[in-house]
Amino acid sequence: MSRGFSCCGILALGLCAHALAQTSHHPDLSGVWNGAVAARVLADGDKVGLLLAAREGTLVNFERDNALLRRMDPNKPVYKPELWEKVQKLDQSGNTEDPAYGCLPLGLPRMGPPMKIVQTVEEMIFLYTGNPDTYRVIPMDGRPHTPLDQLDGTWKGEALGHWEDDTLVVDTIGFNDTSWLDIGGYFHSENMHVVERLRRDGDTLTWQATVDDPDVFLKPWVMNARVLRRNPDPRAVLEETLPCSERDLSHLVTKEHH
Amino acid sequence: MVTNAGRNACAIFCLISACAAAQMPRLADGHPDFNGVWNGNANSPFVKSEDPLAQNLASRDGQLLNFERDGSLIRRANPNKPLYKPQFWEKVQKLDQNGNAEDPSYGCMPAGVPRMGPPPKIVQTTKELVFLYVSPPAQGWGDQYRVIPTDGRAHTPLEELDGTWKGESIGRWDGDTLVIDTIGFNDTSWLDIGGYFHSENMHVIERLRREGDTLTWEATVDDPDVLIKPWTMDRRTLRLNPDPKATLAESLPCVERDLSHLVTKEHH
């Protein structure tokens, strides 16, 4: 093979790959999305704030107050009546029953939106920090789901992505029944089905997950949307999370999360 | 946007060009394409009968009897070891002898760089490489990732870095070899079993090279605080998974239940 021909081939390959990448007409979701953590502190005028020590940024009781605020959220999963007692019992023993209190993964959808997205034509890579640092690989090649009975139930499940116009839709099945959806004893079955929708508007990214689990829910639960801001620094990096080391659980004297 | 016909024509032309150019798949920027799942070649823990070591090992030819202990013996028989300064020999030995309690990877802690080894999956763009890892079942440090920028940035000064398990990695291309330079470690992780500790001044250089459908990974560990000379770890070669739809299996989370029941102090 002549050197000239080889170079020409490489150049052509390069140009083609470049052209294909450029012709992707989908929104660019790549980047670090960590600019907007929701404030947990109430403003002065909030009626609930009168009852909370943590109002206006004081640190007294802020963990307990924060849990109160989360529990007041009217947007809750609606369980079948025969499971209400189970949810309540799990909740009341949250410190020992919640897997996230024992260094286990949060799993989907509790892990929330990704902190960083790497986007290629074939797949989306979601990178997470927190407990623990983890990733999801989301194929975009149009493959179908593996039949549920052939999947080992996992924390992250089998995620597949596709575009609906400018919205990235991630469809996930194949879960274990160990993870929770949130504090509050919100367990689920292995038949859970999670659909996440991600949409970029300017430099914000909106993430919203819908959880369907006909074994335990009366109807699908549409979780609160979360909005992230794009980190404007092109060199922004994710911080490494400290590994989870369970030292405190045996010293907790209460059973319920606060 | 191009038409499907245009896209197909382009793809076919690419294919022909690639055949003509042969050997190395490349990205648009001309660098070798490391994208893919690289998990085709796990090292076998078993030795064969013809190996001189084997006559002493119960686990030869795939016998499971004592295979963990034998695997450890084989690793310890490897002459390629880090050379510690004489004043640390006793410390290394003591850590080794108490490996079950001292080795952080026996307590669900991360393996860290370079012990986490080569990545089973690489995602490459023109700005960065993402290394995706699954942890061995025996360790269970989870599904970790590394983001390695290749945009030419400089290292953060060491004194401004919090020491971490993975450190601060920066990549660059040396011809067709990807060179990853990492500093900014904690002094908690080990390099391997055997009490191989290191200091916060550790400096790791990994070199990755693709030849056809194999990827070769080699790491050199320099730590002038504790080592007499840099340690070049044994090279590891991975094979590209030929299935374009291959996925990584999710790591089981590490739950430390066994440590308090172990009656020996030393790894086996």
Topology overview:
The complex is a heterodimer of chains A (258) and B (268).
Chain A: H1 3-23, E1 31-32, H2 62-72, H3 84-92, H4 94-97, E2 116-119, E3 123-128, E4 134-139, E5 158-164, E6 167-173, E7 193-201, E8 204-212, E9 221-222, E10 226-229
Antiparallel strand pairs in A: 1-2, 2-3, 3-4, 5-6, 6-7, 7-8, 8-9, 8-10
Chain B: H1 4-21, E1 36-37, H2 67-77, H3 89-97, H4 99-102, E2 121-124, E3 128-132, E4 145-149, E5 168-174, E6 177-183, E7 203-211, E8 214-222, E9 231-232, E10 236-239
Antiparallel strand pairs in B: 1-2, 2-3, 3-4, 5-6, 6-7, 7-8, 8-9, 8-10
Structural commentary:
The complex is a heterodimer of chains A (about 260) and B (about 270). Chain A has about 260 residues and is α+β, with helices and mostly antiparallel strands. Chain A contains 4 helices and 10 strands; from the N terminus they run H-E-H-H-H-E-E-E-E-E-E-E-E-E. Chain A has a domain at about 30-40 and about 75-230: Lipocalin. Chain A starts with a helix and ends in a 29-residue tail after the last strand. Chain B has a domain at about 60-240. Chain B contains 4 helices and 10 strands; from the N terminus they run αβαααβββββββββ. In chain B, the strands form 2 sheets. In chain B, strands 5, 6, 7, 8, 9 and 10 form a 6-stranded antiparallel sheet that branches. Chain B has a 4-stranded antiparallel sheet with strand order 1-2-3-4, with no helix packed on it. In chain B, a hairpin with a 3-residue loop joins strand 2 and strand 3 (about 130). Chain B is globular. Classes of the chains: A alpha+beta (about 260), B alpha+beta (about 270).
